[in-house]
Amino acid sequence: MDDFDAHDIRERRLIMAPSTSSVITLTINGEKYTLPVDHRTTLLDALREHLDLTGTKKGCDQGQCGACTVLLDGRRAVSCLQLAVAAEGRDVTTIEGVADGDRLHPVQQAFLDLDGYQCGYCTPGQICSALAVIEEHAAGWPSAVTADVRPEAGPPPLTADEIRERMSGNLCRCGAYVSIVQAVAQAAEVQATGTEEAVA
Which molecular function GO terms apply here (predicted)? Predict the structure, then answer.
């Protein structure tokens, strides 16, 4: 093969190579953001590095600690394993979108009331996960510790064991688990009853 043919083949490969970046529009906390991203950019890095939404934390960056948990269409997702391009067209909720203005969400209030945090690094992910846990439980979704998984049985009691199992994807290096379980239970009770009273 002469030099001309080799050069021609290289040029054709460059022309035929697919693009490695896109301009995407993400809906985050009810607002639309349009940004260019490399296709390999995770949702976590798009949030933190491109949009300055730094409430979502980078922990292990391997989907094991839960610090980067956000909600995608109301379901929990570890944003370090979710590509930003795959989140286009979905509703993303981060910790910045949980409160209603200056009014804290019942889950946030319960974490404050019951010291469900220490250093606070894992707290945004814990709160986002707790939001989904409460919704999943209310919808009757069983967990690995649910005794009766028949649909007609309805939601099981939201016991400490149920909460621990459902929150098990979120690690707390400080060990605030007892308070986290209490906070989730209190928030679930507040949401179920519509009261603002703390549960003993």
Answer: 2 iron, 2 sulfur cluster binding; metal ion binding; oxidoreductase activity, acting on the aldehyde or oxo group of donors
